[in-house]
Amino acid sequence: MAKFLSRACLPALLLAAVSITGHAATPAGHAAEVDPRIGTGGDGHTFPGATLPFGMIQLSPDTAMPDFKHAYKWAAGYQYGDSSLLGFSHTHFSGSGHSDLGDVLVMPIAGEVRLEQGDAAKPGSGYRSRFSHDSEKVEAGYYAVTLSDYGVRAELTAGRRVGWHRYTFPAGKPAHLLLDLRPSIYDYPGKVLWSNLRVQEDGTVTGCRQTRGWAPGRELCFAMRFSQPLQSRHLLNRETDVPYKGFKGPGYQADDKDAQQGRALVGVFDFGALKQPLGVKVSISSVSEANAIANLDSDGKGWDFDARRAEARSAWDKVLAVIDIDAPKDQRTSFYTSLYHAMLSPTLSMDVNGDYRGPDNAVHRAEGFEFHSTWSLWDVYRAQQPLMVLLQPQRSVDFVRSLIAAREASPFGILPVWAYQGLETWCMIGYHAVPVIADAYVKGIRGFDADAAMKAMVASATYAPYGGLGEYMKLGYVPIDKEPEGASKTLEYAYDDWSIARMAKAMGRDDIAATFDKRAGNWRNAYDPKTGFMRARKTDGAFREPFNPDTAGYGSDYTEGNAWQYSWYVPQDVAGLITAMGGDDVFVKKLDSVFEAKVDPSHFANVEDITGLIGWYAHGNEPSHHLAYLYDYAGAPWQTQKRLKQIMDSQYAPRPDGLAGNDDLGQMSAWYIFTALGFYPVAPGSDEYAIGRPFLARAALHLADGKTFTITAAPLDDAHPYIGNVTLNGKPLDRVYLRHRDILAGGELHFTMQAEPNRTWGKSADARPAAMSAYKP
């Protein structure tokens, strides 16, 4: 997903000191195989800090929070190539193509305090500090680093709603903690609309700030406590212009001991020379300071940092234990880090009392479920959410209920598009909450109100003011002279419509199914048989001219892609697309031309997210993610196997720049997990997975009902890249797809691999995955 401007996005202090030192036990379990540094370099946009599965807190270091014109590479606040840190903030996106958050930034300081960030190229010019990667320790649920300029050892871990800090200061130097409520990821002048900072009677530090960011008017509150008594404190409003002499460098006098309000607040908390580490615990709430305090009281008891670190490790061990694999070390690191990244979002966005903020910016209360937000729906419906349906079905219930609850609180009566902390951003296209819900229902997830879900889905698909939907319902396509990116919108709407039809059919709602099955065929209105590409039409029915299939970028017919990438976006009816293109042979040759084209990456210099190129295939962006699996639908699964080997070898690696593009809240990682296992959900909303080829000698999926589905492959090496034959529970499997129920039943899927392609397996029409034109219920 690209950045905002390149596409259609709308805009206790006195508590007695206690020891918090100690040593965590040697970890066991798959969490030890996770490397959160993967994706922190290049365009992966992941963060290395501490968090829990789907947790509310993402406590992580920030190396930069640049202005909005330069923010793209720092969408998660951290770039591996940087050499200094601003501090540690409590909220981050994982792998997004847009940026925001970076809330409640704190920096431990030994000695002299400076109040501004300073210039990274001029050490000592501000409060930022240099660091070395050699001093970092990065684990699932734990991050540590030494701040070179201060000699402070910083350690972080996380609970569900609380961030835990431990800072060890050099002996004899005065210890301070700076709290800066000014900076934000994707910063620009005037972003902070208002903030307040106060010290409560019991010594708890609280505050809120409201920002005019990606989600306008977002408010976040916090509560903070320290393990050591304070010697002094300074709450500063940096908007005033009277010189303040308490700190070196430019400063301003607006020092109220107990409270401050304004748009540029800084707090400095002084502890003197400490003989013990300083513990800090911080909770957040999108509702109120009172709720943040309640979250801290509930989830932040005591000061045992090592116990909290062990709990975080245990939480990760538990969720990662859902799959056991046999693989070499590097592959295990890639696999379990991918599984880790796939289980970061959507995030818990609800306080301990059930309160959450909805898209109407009002406070609501969840009853019987946990409200989650942070929905990059254009990305995660493809593989990340289907992976959760398979591996975390109970969480899927909460996710679907969260989507329904958000719709019920929406001023427009529709499901989320790209939401976080309950608020809507209107970023990207489609109504892709629909296939998330449909995929869950079709695969047997219950525990939510299906009728309310269907009502929400239909409402989203018929809300005429959204993205040209009114014209789409009249004309059967989105006209490019009325709405940008018309080809992409037509195609994505048609797929979403198909997923509504599938759920309606499963519910016995044949009337709704008939309506949306018809709309699902609208992809045909974008197909130009003369050129063989998907194109945008004008209101009069003519295709827009001039046409160049290579053209990409905002203002083109397509969203973050071009005709070479988007002409395959008919996951609901690949058989129909094959027929339209002229049959199996023509389809396969044209698909080959996508992967084998000679393309200069500079061609996409104006579209940041089109990365990971293999010809025109762009693995760094989601519209390409299903392409390699399409050979299955044309009777050439051996070609799918060949292309997947290319992709896996070139687009993933266990190093900081090991992701070819934005992880997009786990979608890139979920693609890796499915593909490593040997199958992929080309069309979420169906019961089928297209078979690719396995990349693991053995994988055991431990399912929610206690059954195990085991996948084995032999001989598995570079000399045997192709499938010879497949058996399911000892019986030959002649089809090139698995059903969800095949997996849930438990058993064993075995692949016999060979050196040369098997050109007969999966070739017959009845062996291929289903499509709308030949749907198998």
Automatic annotation (TrEMBL):
What region holds the Glycosyl hydrolase family domain? 291-754
User: One Pfam family this chain carries?
Assistant: Glyco_hydro_92N
* Keywords attached to this entry: Glycosidase, Hydrolase, Signal
The residues the entry assigns to the signal sequence are 1-24
Q: Does the keyword ATP-binding apply?
A: no
Provide the Glycosyl hydrolase family 92 N-terminal domain boundaries.
34-285
Q: Which GO terms describe its molecular function?
A: hydrolase activity, acting on glycosyl bonds
For this protein, the record's Gene3D superfamilies field holds: 2.70.98.10, alpha-1,2-mannosidase, alpha-1,2-mannosidases domains, GH92 mannosidase domain
Q: What is its EC number?
A: 3.2.1.-
What is this protein identified as?
Answer: GH92 family glycosyl hydrolase
**Highest classification ranks of the organism:** Bacteria, Pseudomonadati, Pseudomonadota, Gammaproteobacteria, Lysobacterales
